Amino acid sequence: MLAFGLAGYCSAALRAHRCFLAPAAIYVAYNTGIIAAMFLLGEGWGVRSAAVGVAAGGCLMVAVQLPSLWRRLASRTPPVARAGAQVEERPMQLALVAAVLLFALCRQSQVLAERFLASGLPAGAISHLNYAQKVAQIPMTLSLMVCTVTFPVVARALADGDTARARSRVERDLALASCLVLLGMCAVIACAPQMIELLFQRGAFTASDTAATADVMRVYALGLLGQTLVGALVRSYFSAGRASWYPLGAMAAGIAVTSWIGAATVHSWGVAGIAAANALGITVTAALLLAGLRTGRLNSPHSVSVRVRRVLAELTRLVCAAVVATAAGAFAASRLPSPASGLAAGCLTVTFVFVPLTWALGAQSPASALRFLRAVTRRLTHGRFR
């Protein structure tokens, strides 16, 4: 636990200084520690070797970031600021820390609520839910990397009082992250049986487990857009360096919806009812967070406000394209008997339908994605993207 806390602090400090390479390598080091420990100790220690690997991986996550962090701490060069800008040193606010921690705690409690509801179901239900969530969350994780990289830009703009630049950046991030997660969501829903069979169907994981997990994953994937929007929007509330309790209230409302819907559907729909409750609850939280940032509601010069109608119009175009792409991808994946070939055909079909259709519907996200990739490539080429 200590190593994980230190690794998180190091990552936050480095990202705040626009240094992303070392934080990006932490999970490579983490998985290396787990795999090495299980390979060396697995025969004698069994599952405890995985626990040892987690502890070792946590230490490796700190070690891989220490050289970069030490260079930052030892550097005599002052941080770059705008010409004439006044850099304000503010002490850490206890209220801000409490708001962030309570929001994170409330969000993680969603997992406990789901597992509690699933504990009364037949054996294997929690495993099906866990496998489905782990696979389906990959597109969400990839899409939120955009917000992780641009979070310091939003914070800097708010520190300078440039709310227009912060609003523009947040709106572009929302559109781009939504585009990426919807593309991944299309592939997950269209190719769920092929993905699960290819990844897990061996040993005690049978064809019936594949079918059950794929069904749950398709329902759970319906909430991926909400998950991504929550992860992107909450950064806007906390980027100003001031405490905001509104995200905690929005997350609590989402947890309540998840718990109520899950309790009402778990006996009739089983684990699929829990997945549906998860999707609905996180979507409610996303809607509340987006409504809380609408233009005119926040009057502080250090707050982000977004044009909700413009964001919703972009999301509507993307969702319409996603529905068509999902149907086409599912049809293509089901035509081939092999899970590998079906997965490849489904993913290619989803991509070749979703991207042109978003352009045809007038969405701006594909163009933003290309500009973002070109900017990243250019910075990597010139050594400025650290």
TrEMBL record:
Transmembrane portions of the chain: 25-42, 49-70, 174-196, 216-238, 245-263, 269-293, 314-334, 340-361
InterPro entries in the cross-refs: Lipid_II_flippase_MurJ/MviN, MurJ
GO cellular component labels: plasma membrane
GO BP terms in the entry: lipid translocation; peptidoglycan biosynthetic process; regulation of cell shape
GO molecular function, one term: lipid-linked peptidoglycan transporter activity
Keywords tagged on the record: Cell membrane, Cell shape, Membrane, Peptidoglycan synthesis, Transmembrane, Transmembrane helix
Location(s), subcellular: Cell membrane
Pfam families per record: MurJ (PF03023)
Membrane topology term: Multi-pass membrane protein
Superkingdom, natural source: Bacteria
Record-given protein name: Murein biosynthesis protein MurJ
Organism: Streptomyces afghaniensis 772
